[in-house]
Amino acid sequence: MPEFKLSKTKLRQVNTKLTAAYPETDLHNRRNPLEEAVFIILTSQTNEDKYLETWSRFKAKYPSMREAQNASVDSIARTIKSGGLSRWKAQRIKTLLDKVQDKFGTSDIRILDSLPNEEMERELKVLDGIGIKSAKCIMMYSFGRDVFPIDTHCLRLLRRMGLQIPKESRRSQAFSEKIEHEIPEEIRRNLHIKLIQHGRAICKRAPECNVCVVSDFCKAFLKNGKSSKSSKYC
User: Could you tell me if residue 3 is inside a domain?
Assistant: First the structure.
């Protein structure tokens, strides 16, 4: 298992600095958990402008999840074509909605709100197209649970700040639980959002360390020398 180098105190300080830099908290996620599951599928391998346009088209065509569930794969694919990988995404959406209907007898999964976190996550992950990260996103954004989804940006930033991440364990349940345990409950949602925003804006694959507000908490930056403000070592 990875060794976490950041203390909870430092994580809270990182959260405070990033919150000041990025006051906006809306990443366009959905309050309805089944809509959130579909939204996550539409975000796959595309940029924000594209998936927001695709989501808008999808909702205009299918105002309710029941209408989407009754639609054909071809119809869904035509509706979401602008977002790329439309056939693959349409099949995933159709399979997910059919599975929800078969399992719950309705196009709604808000019934899961009565479950504790562990059981809710387990129930979500048996639905087609929902893995650990997607389940935690649904739990956090739609059910208001204090969990910590680990997306690409979170992973990259936490690694640069000192988290040792064995490649073979990134998608494992044990790894997800380990990282979540290290993040203070009260900042999990906000820190997740801020890491995504900072990862998109500054701490990209080629980071802009000279304008980073949390460089003093970054092991990669500190290890290679504050004075240079260079991004080549990240």
Answer: no
What tokens appear for 123 in the block? 């129930």
Contact between 192 and 154 (Cβ < 8 Å): yes
Answer yes or no: do 80 and 135 share one domain: yes
pLDDT of residue 182: 87
Whether residue 1 is contained in a domain is answered as no
Helices (H), the chain: 8-21, 33-43, 48-61, 65-70, 73-79, 86-104, 117-125, 132-137, 152-160, 173-182, 188-201, 219-223
* pLDDT at residue 200, as a whole number: 94
List per-block mean pLDDT (blocks of 10 residues) for the chain, which spans 234 residues.
Answer: 69 97 93 97 92 96 96 97 94 96 94 97 92 96 97 92 72 86 95 97 94 92 61 43
Q: Give a yes or no: residue 160 inside a domain.
A: yes
DSSP symbol at 145: -
- 97 & 40 share domain: yes
Within a 10 A sphere around the Cβ of 125, how many other Cβ atoms? 14
How many domains is the chain partitioned into structurally?
2
Instruction: Give the chain's radius of gyration (CA, Å).
Output: 19
CATH number at residue 182: 1.10.1670.10
pTM score, two decimals?
0.89
Q: Are residues 175 and 210 in the same domain?
A: yes
